[in-house]
């Protein structure tokens, strides 16, 4: 191993959302945070060095995105996902969720419907609700420990008011890396019904052995024409705080509408100097680091799944094919969601993602982030095990 993912980095007091907001969000500071989706690892050294050099320059004026920024991303997507994208298709923005909000505003009208497949990443709900659009839900099917899309009900759920589907691929929180066939079936339904597909592929670089990410827009020319794809270096290289993401819109009409909203109405034209720099450095020099990270994460995933299966009766882990998020099924315990939350927060003293906030199908589940040094993961799991044992023993 060239990179030290075992190293504990103290993140308290760094304005970390994950570590410094515990009191405000969970009501106690004395918790091990395993919730929001960032990692407790340092970013690739090449990226840190580049940002240090940039900071030493000392002038931080308005910053344009140079050719290197776009080319590094185009090359990354080609090598990593075998997808050829054109420079003019790419629109940079401060984040994937802001891009989704822009798409909702640009491609739907108030009162029209946006479709989600739940349980799913919860800010999607807020984007729909806060923009006065209607939420349509197609719940994922869960059987034999595996989640699948329910195409029959999806087809039924789409009506004349349904204009946009937000696809989470790979899927947060259930960890599925959708297959090409699944995506094709989904895409064909949307194509037939006139629904635009926003494919949130922020987790596409975090995929484990045996699975392969397929960009939705790569499947066919026709599907590419109804697609908006969101990607970012933020999950991959742990730079969410640098607020830089890339949206790919091959269809020129859709792109114009999106750009109009972003550039001409919201005036988000220029970028964050460190975000631009870090993105290029990471995409150019981060491959080796990411390959090692993926090995580390996969071992963490396997460790957590095995540990829970062997030591924590009543909790069933849903082994993820991608993402560093582990979806845990607590339903075997016969406890309600409040009781589960209280057990985790007050007895185990761990902060996890609370299932019900992920929408329909999230009840009875919790989401655990395993992107941390192994010792922290061991500590978190041991805390949950101990709390469960105490509960059983009365
Ligand atoms: C599926 C998904 N989309 C988007 C985001 C956040 O993206 P951003 O920080 O670029 O808005 C996350 C973060 O957890 C996520 O899991």
UniProtKB/TrEMBL annotation:
Keywords in alphabetical order: Lyase, Pyridoxal phosphate
GO MF terms here are: cysteine-S-conjugate beta-lyase activity; pyridoxal phosphate binding
Positions of the Aminotransferase class I/classII large domain: 38-384
Q: Which cofactor does it need?
A: pyridoxal 5'-phosphate
The record's listing under Pfam families reads: Aminotran_1_2 (PF00155)
Enzyme type, top EC level = lyase
Entry-linked SUPFAM superfamilies: PLP-dependent transferases
Protein name per the record: cysteine-S-conjugate beta-lyase
Protein family membership: Belongs to the class-II pyridoxal-phosphate-dependent aminotransferase family. MalY/PatB cystathionine beta-lyase subfamily.
Origin organism of this chain?
Kosmotoga arenicorallina S304
Q: What is its EC number?
A: 4.4.1.13
């Amino acid at each position: 191993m060239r990179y030290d993912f075992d190293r504990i980095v103290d993140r308290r007091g760094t304005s970390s959302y994950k570590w410094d907001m515990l009191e405000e969000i969970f009501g106690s500071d004395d918790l091990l945070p395993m919730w929001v989706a960032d990692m407790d690892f340092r970013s690739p050294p090449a990226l840190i060095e580049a940002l240090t050099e940039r900071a030493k320059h000392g002038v931080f004026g308005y910053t344009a995105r140079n050719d290197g920024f776009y080319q590094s991303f185009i090359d990354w997507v080609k090598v990593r996902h075998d997808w050829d994208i054109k420079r003019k298709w790419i629109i940079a923005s401060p984040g994937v969720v802001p891009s989704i909000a822009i798409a909702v505003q640009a491609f739907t009208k108030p009162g029209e419907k946006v479709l989600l497949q739940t349980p799913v990443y919860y800010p999607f709900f807020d984007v729909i609700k806060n923009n006065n659009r209607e939420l349509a839900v197609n719940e994922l099917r869960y059987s034999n420990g595996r989640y699948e899309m329910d195409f029959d009900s999806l087809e039924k759920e789409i009506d004349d008011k349904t204009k946009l589907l937000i696809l989470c691929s790979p899927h947060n929180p259930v960890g599925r890396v959708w297959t090409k066939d699944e995506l094709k079936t989904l895409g064909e339904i949307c194509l037939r019904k006139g629904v635009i597909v926003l494919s949130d592929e922020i987790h596409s670089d975090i995929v484990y052995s045996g699975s392969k990410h397929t960009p939705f827009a790569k499947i066919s020319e026709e599907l590419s024409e109804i697609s908006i794809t969101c990607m970012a270096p933020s999950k991959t290289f742990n730079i969410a705080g640098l607020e830089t993401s890339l949206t790919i819109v091959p269809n020129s009409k859709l792109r114009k509408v999106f750009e109009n909203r972003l550039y001409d109405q919201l005036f988000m034209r220029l970028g964050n100097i460190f975000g631009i720099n870090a993105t290029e450095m990471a995409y150019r020099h981060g491959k080796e680091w990411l390959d090692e990270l993926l090995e580390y994460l996969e071992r963490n995933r396997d460790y957590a799944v095995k540990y829970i299966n062997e030591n924590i009766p009543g909790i069933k882990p849903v082994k993820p094919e991608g993402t560093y998020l582990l979806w845990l099924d607590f339903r075997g315990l016969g406890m309600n969601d409040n009781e589960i939350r209280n057990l985790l927060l007050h007895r185990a003293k761990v902060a996890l993602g609370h299932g019900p906030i992920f929408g329909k199908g999230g009840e009875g589940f919790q989401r655990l982030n395993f992107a941390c040094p192994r010792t922290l993961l061991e500590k978190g799991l041991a805390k949950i095990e101990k709390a469960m044992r105490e509960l059983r023993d009365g």
